[in-house]
């Protein structure tokens, strides 16, 4: 039995660390991102801009055996232009919601269509955010699209009891997104100083630690009964 993983956003941050970890553990990994620097005999890369959702139906998923397991990890996400609703451009709103909500929905739909009842085990992990649970000033499209991602996970479980589906909130992680948040004007983002404090106080999680926690979840899915998981609540050795 082989284990296959389709993962978006495999080129940096959590996605890159998780991709490398999966390859170390003999997974066959299919990465979807705009760029790539990973070279491995068990890694197949497809260049794609997930904001161009009209192209996603053209993606070809791997052919796998009935006795294999497959995971879809919707990891790619984009905070977008940090600006209050009322100041954003239409194309900004479209691109941000496309990446964070519409692309994962299309991929879930197509993966379920392709693999449901045709493989031993189908697993879907959607990488969400604590921002799905509360409004954060100037993060409007990010908050609403991550909330949509959580509901997508709930709907998949409601309709497909045999599919393992989890929405995972990583917490505050030391990625390019955090660097972008710290660089924005305070006039556009009133909570900027708080996020600078998270950084200076060493409160940002290492992407590798987050990747290890996600890998632990993948290996122990039966332990997680709810659809929504916060990695802040998960301790691993």
Task: Explain the overall architecture.
This protein has 237 residues and is α/β, with parallel strands linked by helices. It has helices at residues 13-24, 90-115, 140-159, 176-183, 192-200, 207-219, and strands at 3-8, 28-33, 43-47, 69-74, 121-127, 164-169, 228-230. Strands 3-2-1-4-5-6-7 form a seven-stranded parallel sheet, with helices on both faces. Helix 1 links the parallel strand 1 and strand 2. The longest helix is centred in the middle third of the chain and has 26 residues, at 90-115. It is globular. The model has no long low-confidence stretch (mean pLDDT 96).
Shape descriptor reads globular
pLDDT below 50 for ≥5 consecutive residues: which ranges?
A: none
Going across the biggest sheet, name each strand in turn.
3-2-1-4-5-6-7
The largest sheet, given as strand count, sense and whether it forms a barrel, is: 7 strands, parallel
Could you report the average pLDDT, rounded to the nearest whole number?
96
Rg over CA atoms, rounded to whole Å, is 17 Å
Share in helix: 25-40%
């Amino acid at each position: 039995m082989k284990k296959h993983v389709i993962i978006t956003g495999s080129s940096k941050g959590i996605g890159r660390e998780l991709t490398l970890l999966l390859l170390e553990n003999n997974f066959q990994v299919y990465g979807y991102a705009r760029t790539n620097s990973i070279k491995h005999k068990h890694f197949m890369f497809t260049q794609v801009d997930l904001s161009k959702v009209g192209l996603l139906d053209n993606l070809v998923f791997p052919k796998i055996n009935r006795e294999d397991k497959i995971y879809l990890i919707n990891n790619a996400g984009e905070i977008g232009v940090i600006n209050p609703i009322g100041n954003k451009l239409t194309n900004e709103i479209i691109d941000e919601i496309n990446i964070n909500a519409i692309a994962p929905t299309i991929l879930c739909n197509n993966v379920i269509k392709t693999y449901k009842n045709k493989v031993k085990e189908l697993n879907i992990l959607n990488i969400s955010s604590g921002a799905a649970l509360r409004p954060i000033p100037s993060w409007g499209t990010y908050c609403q699209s991550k909330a949509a991602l959580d509901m997508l996970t709930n709907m998949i479980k409601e309709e497909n009891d045999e599919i393992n589906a989890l929405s995972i909130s990583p917490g505050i992680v030391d990625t390019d997104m955090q660097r972008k948040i710290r660089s924005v004007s305070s006039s556009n983002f009133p909570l900027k100083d708080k996020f600078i404090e998270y950084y200076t106080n060493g409160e940002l999680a290492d992407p590798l630690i987050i990747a290890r926690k996600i890998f632990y979840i993948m290996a122990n899915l039966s332990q997680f009964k709810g659809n929504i998981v916060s990695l802040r609540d998960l301790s691993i050795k």
